[in-house]
């Protein structure tokens, strides 16, 4: 069964916001005393907290699904819904939080750092909060928005000052046990260490942490052995200590070849942007197991060659503790020098300038997409997407309120400029979104005009007839009446009809 986990994927669901309430206050002699619906409560957030007492991500490996509480619904008599309780997830110091695309959200390098990784939904307003001087008794309320839901990755990178690297069974666990109060597992077979061990070393005025990284072998950077899984724990270290086994009995191995293999694996491992490559950091060499006579002779033999390469070499024995004191002081000096350089870099770091959002920055954008039955106009933006989530589409008054909100931020004008016409398909939000046929709002009589482009019938001349035209029309009517009477008289004289028959 796994006892150490340094990389997990969490499936998070933040709490949903509660719905607002539609209610009307009723009192004696006042059956309709005004709206009194309360607001819904906000959903709980999910917060990642760096805790110095936590050393592994194992609890999240066993139960990766986490969710926070939902907000309560609003009620009548101005009673607001309760807010959902936040969920705090403690993680070890040195945990990197990444999203589903692999982008780093935050690096928790200090104890107590907090990061809201999943934001809870916003509670909806009740009809009491929506009342205005023009809308005194709203018959609708806003719905609560859903909380954030998705996957994140937690990746643990040990925060230590010195990393012990070397072949399996080189004596790294024995060294950290001899230099500190740590009690790692020690045995006489390879890959005894299955997870990094931390130890605190006190050398005079220097106090620093040492990490025992599981053994590296040739091809570790390509996935062989355990190196690929744990090389990330070397990224944060200020210095490297190569622990070399001078008493190995394996054929084809010697201290110099072991050092070359480890250096090649460290060089092949890519570090994040902005960090110093592993081989460019301060490095020391510890020739271990000199309590064995043959190992002492081998250490004395290869030491000059290592010093020619520029290494500072220490001959040590974790059994007799020989050479450990000067090694601990040398590591302390390297760590202190690195800390001083970091403090100077932080003091000279450029200031972070916070710029406010531009006042003319549009809260949405329109993307024109081709469809089978014509163009589809997709509206993307935080405001319109949230407003759609808050709308109860079974309530006509709520839909009208949504239309007013969208019109205020200029969506209709933007749709006109994008080429939309009445009846065009409009989608709000990504993916499926909310689909509807757009009917523009009539804000003036000019929108009803059907005259050709560039003309205005209101500017045409008056169509009122003149006095002469009215006189001519009158004479035409009189002549038509006289002709009709004459025609009837001719028919009577011809005997076509008699006055008695007519009666």
UniProtKB/TrEMBL annotation:
The keyword Coiled coil appears for this protein: no
Pfam families: DUF1967, GTP1_OBG, MMR_HSR1
Alphabetized UniProt keyword annotations: Cytoplasm, GTP-binding, Hydrolase, Magnesium, Metal-binding, Nucleotide-binding
SUPFAM superfamilies xrefs: Obg GTP-binding protein C-terminal domain, Obg GTP-binding protein N-terminal domain, P-loop containing nucleoside triphosphate hydrolases
Residues that coordinate or bind GTP: 166-173, 191-195, 212-215, 288-291, 317-319
Protein's cellular compartments: Cytoplasm
EC identifiers of the protein: 3.6.5.-
Biological process annotations from GO: ribosome biogenesis
Obg domain mapped to chain residues: 2-159
Keyword set includes Chaperone: no
GO molecular function: GTP binding; GTPase activity; magnesium ion binding
Binding locations of Mg(2+): 173, 193
Chain residue ranges for the region called Disordered: 447-473
Group of enzyme by EC: hydrolase
OCT domain span: 356-440
GO annotations of cellular component type: cytoplasm
Cofactor field: Mg(2+)
Domain of life: Bacteria
Domain OBG-type G: 160-336
Subunit structure: Monomer.
HAMAP family listed in its UniProt record: GTPase_Obg
Its job: An essential GTPase which binds GTP, GDP and possibly (p)ppGpp with moderate affinity, with high nucleotide exchange rates and a fairly low GTP hydrolysis rate. Plays a role in control of the cell cycle, stress response, ribosome biogenesis and in those bacteria that undergo differentiation, in morphogenesis control.
Family (UniProt): Belongs to the TRAFAC class OBG-HflX-like GTPase superfamily. OBG GTPase family.
Protein name: GTPase Obg
Annotated gene: obg
């Amino acid at each position: 069964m796994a006892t150490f986990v340094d990389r997990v994927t969490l499936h998070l669901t933040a709490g949903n916001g509660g719905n607002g309430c539609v209610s009307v206050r009723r009192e004696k002699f006042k059956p309709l005393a005004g709206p009194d619906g309360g607001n819904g409560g906000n959903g709980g957030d999910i917060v990642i907290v760096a805790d110095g007492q936590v050393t592994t991500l194992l609890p999240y490996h066993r139960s990766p699904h986490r969710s926070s509480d939902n907000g309560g619904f609003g009620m009548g008599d101005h009673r607001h819904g309760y807010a959902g309780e936040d969920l705090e997830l403690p993680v070890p110091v040195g945990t990197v939080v990444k999203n589903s695309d692999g982008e780093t959200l935050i690096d928790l390098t200090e104890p107590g750092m907090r990061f809201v990784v999943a934001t809870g939904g916003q509670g909806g307003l009740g009809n009491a909060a929506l009342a205005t001087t023009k809308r005194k008794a709203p018959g609708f309320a806003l719905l609560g928005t859903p909380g954030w839901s998705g996957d994140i990755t937690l990746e643990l990178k040990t925060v230590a000052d010195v990393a012990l690297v070397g072949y399996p069974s080189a004596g790294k666990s024995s060294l950290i046990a001899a230099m500190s109060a740590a009690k790692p597992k020690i045995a006489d077979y390879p890959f005894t260490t299955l997870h990094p061990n931390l130890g605190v070393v006190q050398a005079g005025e220097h106090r620093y942490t040492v990490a025992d990284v599981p053994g590296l072998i040739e091809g570790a950077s390509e996935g062989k052995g355990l190196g690929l899984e744990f090389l990330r724990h070397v990224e944060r270290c200020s210095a490297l200590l190569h622990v070399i086994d001078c008493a190995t009995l394996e054929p084809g191995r010697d201290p110099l070849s072991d050092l070359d293999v480890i250096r090649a694996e460290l060089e092949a491992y890519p570090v994040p942007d902005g960090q110093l490559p592993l081989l460019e950091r301060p490095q020391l060499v510890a020739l271990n197991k000199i309590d064995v006579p043959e190992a002492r002779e081998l250490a004395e033999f290869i030491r000059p060659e290592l010093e020619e390469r520029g290494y500072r070499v220490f001959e040590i024995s974790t059994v007799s503790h020989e050479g450990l004191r000067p090694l601990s002081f040398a590591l302390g000096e390297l760590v202190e020098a690195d800390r001083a350089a970091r403090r100077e870099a932080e003091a000279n770091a450029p200031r972070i300038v916070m710029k406010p959002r531009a006042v003319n920055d549009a809260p949405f954008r329109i993307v024109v997409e081709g469809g089978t039955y014509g163009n589809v106009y997709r509206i993307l933006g935080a405001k319109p997407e949230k407003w759609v989530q808050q709308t109860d589409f079974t309530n006509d008054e709520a839909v009208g309120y949504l239309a007013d909100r969208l019109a205020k931020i200029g969506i209709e004008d933007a749709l006109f400029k994008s080429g939309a016409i009445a009846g065009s398909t409009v989608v709000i939000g990504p993916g499926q979104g909310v689909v509807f046929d757009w009917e523009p709002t009539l804000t003036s009589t000019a929108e009803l005009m059907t005259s050709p482009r560039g003309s205005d019938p209101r500017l045409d001349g008056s169509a009122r007839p003149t006095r002469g035209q009215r006189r001519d029309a009158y004479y035409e009517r009189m002549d038509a009446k006289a002709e009709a009477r004459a025609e009837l008289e001719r028919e009577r004289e011809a005997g076509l009809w008699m006055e008695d028959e007519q009666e």
